[in-house]
Specification:
Shape: globular
Radius of gyration: 23 Å
Largest sheet: 2 strands, parallel
Structural class: mainly alpha
Helix content: 55-70%
Low-confidence stretches: 1-77
Number of helices: 22
Strand order of the largest sheet: 1-2
Strand content: under 5%
Number of strands: 2
Order of helices and strands: EHHEHHHHHHHHHHHHHHHHHHHH
């Protein structure tokens, strides 16, 4: 396992029925699938190897993984247990992919694109062998679920070799978007098991133009390379950022350059920030510059220029957050001034996020309490854009604590019409109030009808410190 990838491995010994209960999805998992949007459209999902693209703005909250079952089944046949394992692993992988990809596309995310955190599990060999055997099942949905499940499994070397041979066959035969999704998932799974064979094959095809006519290929290939980029892919990513005709490919390249690193990467990102026609690409370039450590001095000029001059609020907001990653107190007054002069909510949210990140910079606490917190409360409760309401909810716990902030978060958790906002608000209430939130969240869990939001509330409750013994 490479040092740059902090992989949390859950070590499961024998999967006895009693121990298994806390891991199953029965009854307590979110009933609604993770929402689907263009940014997340590259996460494989049951049914087609990846979520279908839609224009929905909602994304799954970080606090809404599949919930655990509350009790073990009284009895289970071996086949039933395997089916539950397949369902549990594939659904967990799907949620984790949304978490990973959401973090790469939300403008104010703390997810570091230089490191891919991915959970893998050690499971018994008989389960692994059955999952591998399902890759030959005639039902494409079964194959897709098995692929997803395997991405969560730590494989033995001989199993990795078997999967690599399968990848070679499926990559060579890929002719449709569904074929590409399957090859993507195989390559991603290989990468989590320390085999870069799939990543290098996708990268080679990007370099040569091979398979460009296959639907979705270039977008998925660019995403895979950006997720697993090494310095060896730096030149490819720079070329894609500078010249790819597809905005999504350029955006993935901008994210990947933060991982590939180097001074040349910073130069390429600065050029994209200044000149790319797509604001989402410019915003991603700004974020990557921040992760590379580009500061507020001479090297930070592209970010300062974007903060002051870019025509898109999302880019100005991303530049504000990127500047704050330097932890340079001198940046705080610049961000406060940007907040005061900018009328775009996205830019103002970025400025608030940046000042909050800088913490105890001179004047920051007063600004956050007097100016930023009222703006966030108003945005959380009344902005027409649910995505911006969600961002405001996420930022409120970083403000100086007040009864007004507490009431706004609770109101959003109880009353917002968008499930994503209610989910994020439940997590924010837990983060802001700690154990004091237990009664409110328990009440919300009883009243909430949306399965996805229930999953978020359950996760928020699980994050609270244990209740004191009576």
């Amino acid at each position: 396992m490479t040092a740059s990838r902090r992989v949390a491995r859950l070590v499961l010994s024998v999967l006895l029925l009693g121990a298994l209960a806390a891991l199953l999805l029965d009854g307590a998992a979110p009933h609604d699938p993770p929402p689907r949007e263009p940014e997340a459209a590259y996460a494989p999902a049951p049914g087609a190897g990846g979520p279908e693209t839609s224009s929905a703005a909602a994304v799954a909250p970080a606090s809404a993984p599949p919930a655990a079952a509350s009790a073990a089944p009284d009895a289970a046949a071996p086949g039933d247990e395997f089916d539950r394992q397949l369902a549990r692993l594939s659904e967990a992988a799907r949620w984790e992919m949304f978490r990973v990809f959401r973090g790469r596309f939300e403008p104010f995310s703390d997810a570091d694109p230089r490191e891919l955190e991915w959970t893998q599990e050690l499971i018994p060999v008989e389960i692994r062998r059955r999952l591998l055997a399902l890759l030959d099942d005639p039902d494409p949905e079964v194959r897709s679920r098995a692929l997803l499940a395997l991405s969560r499994v730590a494989l033995e070397p001989e199993e990795v070799e078997e999967l690599a041979r399968r990848f070679d066959r499926e990559f060579a035969a890929a002719r449709t978007a569904e074929d590409v999704r399957a090859a993507f998932t195989l390559a991603f799974t290989l990468a989590q098991n320390d085999s870069r064979a799939g990543v290098e094959r996708f990268a080679l095809a990007l370099r040569t133009g091979e398979m460009s006519e296959v639907p979705e290929f270039r977008g998925r290939a660019a995403l895979l390379v950006s997720l697993e980029a090494s310095p060896a892919e730096g030149e490819l990513l720079r070329a894609l950022l500078a010249g790819a005709p597809e905005a999504e490919v350029r955006r993935h390249a901008a994210a990947g350059l933060a991982r590939a690193g180097g001074a040349v990467a910073a130069d390429a990102l600065a050029q994209a920030l200044a000149a790319d026609p797509d604001p989402r690409v410019r915003a991603r370039a700004a974020a990557s510059l921040g992760w590379l450590g580009t500061g507020a001095g001479e090297s930070g000029a592209p970010l300062l220029r974007a903060l002051a001059e870019d025509g898109a609020g999302e880019v100005r907001g991303a530049a504000a957050v990127a500047l704050a990653r330097t932890h340079d107190a001198a940046v705080a007054p610049v961000l406060v001034e940007a907040f005061r002069r900018d009328g775009d909510a996205r830019a103002r949210l970025g400025a608030v996020a940046g000042v909050a990140r800088l913490g105890e910079s001179p004047g920051a606490p007063e600004f956050l309490e007097v100016e930023a917190a009222p703006f966030l409360r108003a945005s959380a409760l009344s902005d027409e854009n649910p995505r911006l309401r969600s961002y405001a909810v996420r930022l409120l716990p970083a403000m100086p604590p007040s009864e007004e902030n507490r009431a706004a978060l609770r109101q959003a958790a109880a009353e917002d019409g968008n499930p994503r906002v209610r989910s994020r608000a439940a997590a924010a209430v837990a983060g802001a109030e700690g154990a004091e939130a237990r009664a409110f969240l328990t009440e919300r869990l009883a009243a909430e009808q949306n399965g996805r939001v229930r999953g978020a509330i359950e996760a928020a409750l699980a994050s609270l410190p244990p209740a004191p013994p009576r």
